Amino acid sequence: MPHELTEADLLDDPLALLRRWYAEAQAAGPRADAMTLATATPDGRPSARIVLLKGIEDDGVAFFTNYESRKGRELAANPHAALVLLWPAVDRQVRLAGAVQRLSAQASDAYFATRPRGSQLGAWASRQSEPLRDRAQLDERLAEAEARYAGGPVPRPPRWGGLRLVPREIEFWQGRPDRLHDRFAYVRAADGGWTRTRLSP
Questions:
Q1: For residue range 113-138, what is the model confidence (pLDDT) as tens digits?
Q2: Rounded Cα gap, residues 175 and 187, in angstroms
Q3: Which residues does 114 contact at the CB level (< 8 Å), separation at least 6?
Q4: Of the candidates 106, 108, 121, 110, which has an alpha carbon nearest to the alpha carbon of residue 152?
Q5: Would you please indicate which residues are annotated as catalytic (active-site) residues?
Q6: What is the DSSP annotation of 159-201?
Q7: What whole-number distance in Å separates Cα of residue 161 and Cα of residue 72?
Q8: Cα 165 from Cα 186, distance rounded (Å)
Q9: Taking residues 81-88, what's their average pLDDT?
């Protein structure tokens, strides 16, 4: 298990460092893709939930959701968010904050096509975050989707797709004994590069 994070371990591009840490977390234990997504309403009321990391791109971090869910509605009204990845197996966490933008329809279609058929049908059946009369109502909607697309491919629902958080800040946290952890914060500079600072634990 790693025990320190020094300046020599850092990279100029924090997203490249995130890719490295993510690969190490995947090798160390399950559910390395789980991350907390925090959103807020325009008047500052926050909410948070777990979503799955689906890509670390050159300009941000991708995940997928129902655009009409609570998080989807909050991001449409206030397109700024924060993410936290926690990897206990390697005693690390990464925090990101920045603007959120939709992925292209083509990118969302391409990812949706890779999902298991049950998950594809589930995306049609679930109107995420809306109240349900009971479980039977959800089962009925699933049966309707199964009948509608029986024997053929399942298209992506228009309300479902990808989002990208484009970070303006990324913090890398390495656990150390006695809570004297190593923390480095990257902040996007005006020229598009990054500045970095060691933070007190």
A1: 999 999 999 999 999 999 999 999 99
A2: 21
A3: none
A4: 121
A5: 179
A6: TEEEEEEEEEEEEEEE--GGG--EEEEEEE-TTS-EEEEEE--
A7: 10
A8: 15
A9: 98
SS (H, E, C) 108-120: HHHHHHHCCHHHH
The Cα–Cα gap between 61 and 74 comes to 18
Residue 1 confidence (pLDDT) above 60: no
Q: Does residue 172 contact residue 17 with C-beta atoms inside 8 Å?
A: yes
**Residue 67 is encoded by which pair of tokens?**
């655009």
Whole-angstrom distance, CA of residue 8 vs CA of residue 184: 12
Q: What's the token pair of residue 161?
A: 């797709």
For residue 75, which amino acid is it?
L
Residue with tokens 């989002």, as numbered in its chain: 163
Residue 141 has, within 13 A of its CA and on its CB side, a CA count of 15
Q: Walk me through the domains of the chain, giving residue ranges and CATH numbers.
A: 7-115+159-199 (2.30.110.10)
The closest of 110, 97, 109 to 169, measured between CA atoms, is 97
Answer yes or no: is pLDDT of 2 > 70: no
Q: Which tokens in the block code for residue 181?
A: 């952890």
pLDDT digits 0-9 by tens, 57-66: 999 999 999 9
Biggest alpha carbon–alpha carbon distance for the chain: 59
Torsion of CA 126, 132, 134, 138, to 10 degrees: -20
What confidence score (pLDDT) does residue 3 get? 81
State the DSSP H helix or E strand holding residue 135, giving kind and residue range, or none if neither.
helix 135-148
